[in-house]
Design a protein that fits this description.
Elements: H1 6-11, H2 18-24, E1 32-34, E2 40-42, H3 44-53, E3 58-64, H4 74-87, E4 92-96, H5 101-104, E5 113-114, E6 117-120, H6 122-126, H7 132-152, E7 159-164, E8 168-170, E9 180-182, E10 193-195, E11 197-199, H8 204-211, H9 215-224, E12 226-230, E13 235-237, H10 244-250, E14 258-262, E15 267-270, H11 285-292, E16 297-301, H12 306-321, E17 327-332, H13 334-340, H14 361-379, E18 385-390, H15 397-409, E19 414-418, H16 420-423, H17 429-441, H18 456-468, E20 472-475, H19 477-488, E21 496-499, E22 519-528, E23 533-538, E24 557-558, E25 564-565
Parallel strand pairs: 3-16, 3-17, 4-15, 4-16, 8-11, 17-18, 18-19, 20-22, 21-23
Antiparallel strand pairs: 1-2, 2-14, 5-6, 6-14, 7-12, 9-10, 12-13, 14-15, 22-23, 24-25
Helix pairs in contact: 3-11, 4-17, 7-8, 7-10, 9-10, 12-14, 13-14, 14-15
């Protein structure tokens, strides 16, 4: 008998009315805005009220080893952990990102979790949900339209056409839009120029929304976004173009966190979704605050490995929010550690290499050097770590024992096998107990990796050497020039957001395990003044993905009853 698909599992569960979920959290009926019977938005006033009335819950971030293209079940583990915590008697919530339509119709599929540890309704989660991503795209593209309209009507601000920094966005993977020419067709069709499209989740507007503390902060951050430079070298902001107010209006509802539920009826907050290989890779500060004010413990997720999303969770998100994490979970799988140990290949959309399902303790132990490094990364912030070994049927006791031995030697408090994909919360009870114990002990000595006053170049070097394990960084001339300019303009206090491959601790996706003896090449540095960070572009990161030869969208369709088919 075959295991049912995620979609089949999700549809077999009758959701609780979302009003019931909200009331159990202490939300008043007039503080939620219903989107049907299974999802709702929560008013920002409810966050402030609950924070006044309730103690803050424990704050747990779920991260991972360096992932393979298949992913290691981080979202599934995050959801399953919350379900497991509920089963052992704690009021627990999950707070995760909304996926981009690019991966949904491309190579990765959805991001609602998997098996019996999912957020539902699964179709809504993975598709339009409450329209937040579309609102972000509209706000971003409105600013782009204002720029070209300003050029068309005389360019009173003296914007340099070669200094326009603001692309356009679309939430579909479309490589043909990476480099485009606009304004063709004559005088009335705009000023011809080259530009680009990036995927919507890579927009600075997405990062701004995820980090904003309230509507006033959102409006101020939007106004600070740098859209272009003048021919004299001055920054031109959204405030200068008088578009920030309209952008804020488009995001007035999108700023409200979305409330859904897990398969077992527990609360799930789904809000924002910046990519961790391009942006900061974490869900919204507001959703976390709401969850922490209404639960004993909250499980949130940072994108990709600890060197990516978790580093940004600590150094960007926690710096902005002032929230202190209590514990971290690092997710690992036997098959991924074998790959890091030099055995087999993992290619999304292809059958799994048989070498990855045959016992090979030596390969697991070799690849577990990556796990050890990711545990050490979290340890840089003095946050206690529990390792979740996401189990597959082909794992053997000897392979699991090797992972546990390496994890404990690297400083993890515990390493626990979790089977929540197949068993739901019941399969995560052991992990839940270990995580609760770690979070109860807390991180009293939590600190950030670097201070605000450190020079920008030194911050980049600190991340590269201490987090990635590099020997140093090599700054291209364009990067050196940009860093100097940003510091002179008063942005030297901002944290760094590194855009690099997620498939290696280094800048080179081919370097697996725990590479050494490399230097990180920084080709350029860009300012995200609204979001409040400086982005270092490493290697050949693309901000617009392409579709694979056989996109996931080929399998997605409607049946005779109008139900969605093919979502995973």
């Amino acid at each position: 008998m075959s295991f049912p698909s995620d979609l089949e599992i999700a549809r077999a569960v009758k959701p609780r009315p979302i009003v019931e979920v909200a009331r159990a959290l202490g939300l008043h009926d007039d503080e939620i805005e219903l989107y049907g019977s299974t999802k709702a938005k929560v008013a920002l006033s409810a966050i402030r009220r609950l924070e006044r009335e309730n103690p803050r819950g424990k704050y747990v971030v779920v991260t991972a080893i360096t992932p393979t293209p298949l992913g290691e079940g981080k979202s599934t583990t995050t959801v399953g952990l919350a379900q497991g915590l509920q089963r052992i008697g704690h009021r627990a919530a999950v707070a995760i990102r909304q996926p981009s339509l690019g991966p949904v119709f491309g190579i990765k599929g959805g991001a609602a979790g998997g098996g019996y540890s999912q957020v539902i309704p699964m179709e809504d989660f993975n598709l339009h949900l409450t329209g937040d991503v579309h609102a972000i795209g509209a706000a971003h593209n409105l600013a782009a339209a204002f720029i070209d309209n300003h050029l068309h009507h005389g360019n009173a601000l003296d914007i340099d056409q070669l200094g326009i920094l603001w692309p356009r966005v679309v939430d579909i993977s479309d490589r043909a839009l990476r480099h485009v020419v606009i304004g063709l067709g004559g005088r009335e069709d705009g000023v011809p120029r080259e530009t680009e499209f990036v995927i919507t989740v890579a927009s600075e507007v997405m990062a701004v929304l995820a980090l904003a503390s309230d509507l006033d902060d959102l409006r101020a951050r939007l106004g600070r976004i740098v859209l272009a430079t003048t021919r004299g070298g001055r920054f031109v902001t959204a405030e200068d173009l008088k578009v920030a107010g309209s952008m804020a209006v488009l995001l007035r509802d999108a700023i409200k966190p979305n409330l859904l539920q897990t398969l077992e009826g527990g609360p799930a907050f789904v809000h924002c979704g910046p990519f961790a290989n391009i942006a900061h890779g974490n869900n919204s500060v507001l959703a976390d605050r709401l969850a922490l004010a209404s639960n004993e413990i909250v499980c949130t997720e940072a994108g990709f490995g600890a060197d990516m999303g978790a580093e940004k969770f600590f150094d960007i998100k926690c710096r902005a929010s002032g929230l202190r994490p209590d514990a971290a979970v690092v997710v690992a799988t036997v098959r991924a550690l074998k790959m890091h140990g030099g055995v087999g290949r993992i290619v999304a959309g292809k059958p799994l290499d048989p070498a990855l399902t045959s016992e090979n303790v030596a390969a697991v132990r070799a690849g577990a050097a990556n796990l050890a490094k990711q545990i050490e990364v979290v340890g840089l912030y003095n946050v206690p770590v529990v390792v979740a070994i996401n189990a597959f049927p082909t794992d053997t006791p000897a392979e699991v024992a090797a992972i546990r031995e390496v994890a404990l030697a690297a400083g993890a408090r515990d390493a626990v096998v979790t089977r929540n994909f197949a068993e739901g919360g019941a399969g995560a009870e052991g992990l839940a107990r270990a995580v609760w114990d770690a979070a109860a002990a807390g991180a009293p000595d939590f600190h950030l990796l670097y201070p605000d006053e450190m020079l920008l170049a030194e911050k980049i070097e600190t991340i590269a050497t201490r987090v990635y394990g590099a020997d140093g960084v090599d700054l291209a001339p364009a990067a050196v020039k940009a860093l100097k300019r940003y510091e002179e303009a008063g942005f030297g206090h901002l944290p760094i957001c590194v855009a690099k491959t997620q498939y290696s601790l280094s800048h080179d996706a081919n370097l697996k395990g725990r590479p050494t003896g490399f230097r990180v090449p920084v080709r350029d540095v860009r300012l995200a003044a609204g979001a409040g960070f400086v982005t270092a572009l490493v290697g050949e990161m693309r901000t617009m993905p392409g579709l694979p030869s056989s996109p996931g969208g080929e399998r997605i369709d409607l049946d005779e009853a109008g139900e969605v088919l093919g979502l995973f």
